[in-house]
Design goal:
Length: 927
């Protein structure tokens, strides 16, 4: 009991957690071969709960079956839920065994859902003035939250209180059921009101009150589909309210007094954990080593162990040691001991903590090392505070990097990072020596799973280790209450930072052996890992911009926007906020009565670019002017204004950040600023490119692959006529027009060539007859006839497309010509639009990904080739198929010839790769 003598009951939504753990964790099996990933997640949660969130009373609540009293109210309730996954079925019983082994009561009641039992226990506790904490993230339970009832997300370890409920539903806990009744729930087959989503539902409830008040007000609402739907489906909403309202008056199957927390029987729990092979949980519970761990590991690790080739690293179970406690290192002698230990280990993980997200400006406020799973330390360097214990003993940044130099320069010790480029730049700015050799768990994962999931450390940890790391928000707070990391107390900073290094090392032990199994080792070692240093150097160098020209352009764009805005108001017949989609929609579709308008979920008219373009194509003047205004506004805010803010005033250079593990296809992306989306074919785009300049005495050199994706298509699809055209250096679009439309090459009509060009590039992206008709301004029938003629002339291309779709459906991924797996989520989706999109991805990904692989190969080879030739050119940017260099005027031609040679020989295809080069005082001239 607590001080007041009333209970603090912790209730676990056992059924909800089972499904969440099953889908969150990779497949695992116990020594008997039984699937146990959900069991493992459940035990981890229960262990943490009993050690860190101890109430006075504890119970786990389960569903007794799928049929409850709600099926009597509405027979279709949960009727369309899919069958339980086969691997999950045996885990229900094991989780109930786990509950008993931990000495925790497991409660269920026939005819009622677990949520109803939880609601009844919560109500009882509330009535006696106790406290109830519900371990769940289920939205249906949020209606219970109040002064004496809160929730805790078991995966994120975050509390859920009234504020979080309001952020999710737009209303307080007492009105959650009214919102749910209006919006329905397709997961549980709760009907709700068609066309009403969460935002509309919460707005109605906030305006009118509970469900009955909303329904009563419906006839007085302005004529609309929403009003009609509310009137027509009122009874469905009332049924929905009954379905979503939890019963709070069920007689408690087990009295609260019988739920007091008990310590588990060590022998019983230890034996059961041994049977499951959960050694890490034994450690966490302080039960010793127990029996040897057998097969509790991910399927990928088991595959690596069974592969004919030996794994790249000695097999280490990532969960054989607890996560912490970790050591705080505040003196040089202790740091030097850790350096010695890391060198003896032969592999260690390294991570930095900084006071910003820009590695070229951020200070390193601390660093962490891990030498083996479970053993890690944190070294505070620039922590602040008022307590002597917080800042009294601290190593300086200079002394720390000096002490680390023997480790970082030791070629026999592998240094492992998660997102190594960031940390290498941070160490470089702090004066550290070059670090080698390195591995990067983010890129190790990306090389074999692009598009399958995110590559952040937290996500990889959950996926491969079944462990949820401490979050940054947990140690620094959020919003106005957030503090700087250097102000975090050292105990909390150590737990967070050292765990990052520990998790990184564990991920390396799991993921690196999989590279060979997943045929991604050559990809990673060949150009993903070597590219880290190349891109880091490019980011440090940056590219010079002309501030005067940018200001002139910004003023020019602003002036043109004012002029266009006046024209817009004249056409519209009145003034309005041109930047307001809502006001624009009202003018286009309410006042001007243009056809083709569509309302979004909020009821407002959609005015996105596709809608406006359709209207402009129909000949309407106003949408075209809006598109022009928006284009100028975007260019002004994204480039001319942003580049001035992001320019280093000391060097007049901007420094983009290249993201290495974002896209599905392997393409790099850039941000802060994004220099890969500057329009190519517009005069405004050319004007912006003129703002990127070469320093005095130098030139910018552009080297651009010519039609690389079409060349890849001709190569992999084995199209003889296209191959011949590329080999002869013919105009590929004119040759296509000649082949498909039966017209001579000589004197080719430009319009006919344009149509062939649209088909050539459209095919790469799986273009449809509808898409081609819109692009060329022709009928659907004519467009379809063009595509049919194209495939009739080039049957190999249709075969290629069909093969890629079949490959994606069979494997879940497609493979680029250089061996990169590009995963295609949604390829087997029941939703036709989603599946069609995935099929287009499957067609395009090998081509776009192949192009990305080829230019990466070239980028890795170029620095060495330039240095060997004695050329001092500096690579500045990569923009998809183009590389941009800064070169001395005297060596510009020689450099262009070498760059062209390296790039054209980066891969051997059935057709030649061609690189076009250009030079100039600015990017526009070079491009």
């Amino acid at each position: 009991m607590n001080k007041a003598g009333v209970p603090h009951l912790v209730v676990v939504d056992g059924s909800g957690f089972i499904f969440r753990a099953f889908h969150a964790l990779p497949p695992m099996s116990n020594p008997d071969g039984v699937p146990v990933n959900a069991v493992f997640g459940f035990c981890n949660m229960l262990t943490r709960l009993m050690r860190e969130h101890v109430g006075t009373h504890l119970a786990v609540i389960f569903d007794a079956g799928r049929v409850t009293f709600r099926n009597e109210i509405y027979p279709q309730y949960k009727a369309h839920r899919p069958d339980v996954p086969e691997d999950l079925i045996p885990q229900f019983g094991l989780i109930r065994e786990a509950t008993a082994a931990f000495g925790v009561p497991g409660i269920e009641l026939e005819g009622f859902e677990a949520d109803d039992l939880i609601a009844s226990y919560a109500r009882f506790i509330d009535q006696i003035g106790g406290q109830c904490t519900i371990i769940s993230s289920d939205k249906d339970l949020m209606q219970l939250i109040g002064p004496h009832v809160d929730m805790m997300d078991p995966i994120k370890q975050k509390p859920i209180r009234a504020a979080e409920v309001e952020a999710k539903f737009g209303v307080g806990p007492d009105r959650v059921i009214d919102v749910q009744a209006l919006m329905g729930d397709p997961t549980d087959n709760v009907p709700g009101i068609p066309g009403i989503g969460p935002k509309t539902a919460s707005a109605l409830v906030n305006e009118f009150g509970d469900l009955e008040a909303v329904l009563a007000a419906a006839p007085t609402m302005k004529q609309s589909k929403r009003r009609d739907s509310l009137i027509e489906h009122a009874e469905a909403a009332r049924v929905s309210l009954k379905l979503v309202t939890l019963k709070r008056d069920i007689p408690l199957p087990v009295p609260v007094d019988d739920l007091s927390v008990q310590e588990p029987n060590d022998e019983v729990l230890g034996d059961w954990l041994d049977q499951m092979g959960f050694r890490s949980i034994r450690h966490r519970f302080g039960l010793g080593d127990g029996k040897p761990l057998a097969k509790a590991t991910s399927v990928a690790v088991m595959r690596a162990a069974n592969a004919s080739a030996p794994p790249a690293a000695a097999p280490v179970n990532p969960n054989q040691a607890p996560y912490g406690p970790y050591e705080t290192v505040t003196d040089l002698l202790t740091l030097e001991k850790w350096v010695t230990e890391a060198r003896a280990a032969g592999v260690c993980a390294v991570d930095t903590e900084t006071d910003g997200l820009d590695p070229l400006k951020a200070r390193m406020v601390g660093l962490s090392l891990a030498t083996t799973p479970g053993r890690a330390c944190y070294v505070p360097l620039l922590h602040e505070g008022t307590l002597e214990a917080q800042v009294g003993q601290q190593i300086s940044v200079k002394d720390a990097v000096t002490a680390l130099e023997p480790l970082f320069t030791d070629s026999s010790v592998l240094k492992v990072f998660q997102n190594a480029k960031f940390d290498l730049l941070v160490f470089h700015r702090a004066g550290g020596a070059p670090i080698a050799p390195i591995d990067d768990t983010m890129l190790i994962s990306y090389a074999q799973s692009a598009g399958l999931h995110g590559q952040g450390m937290d996500e990889l940890s959950k996926l491969h280790l079944g462990h949820v790391p401490i979050t940054y928000d947990e140690v620094t707070g959020k919003g106005r209450n957030r503090i700087l990391f250097q102000q975090v107390p050292l105990e909390k900073a150590t737990a967070y930072a050292a765990e990052d290094a520990d998790v990184t090392l564990r991920l390396w032990h799991v993921l690196h052996p999989e590279l060979r199994v997943n045929k991604a080792l050559a990809l990673y070692e060949g150009y993903e890992r070597p590219l880290i240093g190349v891109l880091a150097a490019m980011e440090q160098t940056g590219i010079k911009v002309d501030a005067t020209e940018l200001r002139r352009l910004s003023e020019n764009f602003a002036g043109r926007m004012v002029t266009i805005e006046a024209e817009i108001h004249k056409v519209a017949g009145r003034t309005f906020n041109v930047g307001s989609p809502k006001q624009l929609g009202e003018i286009l579709f309410d006042e001007m009565s243009l056809s083709g308008g569509k309302r979004g979920k909020t009821g407002a008219w959609s005015t996105d670019s596709s809608v406006l373009q359709d209207l402009a194509d129909q000949g309407h003047e106003l949408p075209g002017k809006i598109l022009s205004w928006r284009q100028l506004a975007k260019l002004k805010s994204t480039y001319t204004d942003a580049l001035l803010k992001q320019m280093d005033p000391a060097t007049s250079r901007v420094h983009t950040t290249f993201q290495m593990a974002i896209t599905t296809t392997g393409r790099l992306s850039s941000n802060e600023p994004n220099l890969q989306n500057i329009p190519v074919r517009t005069e405004e785009g050319a004007q912006i490119r003129r703002s990127f300049i070469a320093p005095e005495g130098k030139l910018l050199l552009s080297a651009d692959y010519s039609q690389i994706e079409l060349r890849l298509l001709a190569s992999v699809a084995n199209v003889p006529t296209l191959r011949e055209a590329f080999e002869l250096g013919q105009d590929i679009h004119a040759r296509t027009a000649s082949e498909v439309f039966g017209v001579p090459l000589d004197g080719m009509d430009p319009l006919t060539r344009r149509r062939a060009k649209a088909i050539n590039f459209g095919i790469i992206y799986g273009i449809s007859g509808f898409g081609l008709s819109k692009q060329l301004g022709i009928s659907m029938g004519e467009a379809r006839a063009y595509i049919d003629a194209y495939f009739a002339r080039y049957p190999g291309i249709r075969d290629y497309m069909d093969e890629r779709k079949t490959e994606a459906k069979a494997n879940g991924y497609v493979v680029t010509p250089l061996g990169r797996r590009c995963y295609v989520p949604g390829i087997t989706a029941k939703n036709g639009a989603q599946r069609s999109y995935a099929e287009r991805q499957a067609i395009n990904a090998p081509l776009q990904g192949g192009a990305a692989d080829i230019i990466k190969r070239a980028m890795v080879r170029l620095p060495h080739a330039l240095a060997e030739a004695g050329l001092s050119a500096t690579m500045l940017l990569q923009v998809h198929d183009e590389l941009l260099f800064e070169v001395g005027k005297d060596a510009a031609k020689e450099t262009a010839a070498l760059v062209k040679k390296i790039m054209e020989n980066a891969a051997q295809l059935a057709v030649p790769l061609v690189v076009e080069t250009g030079m100039g005082a600015n990017w526009a001239e070079a491009h």
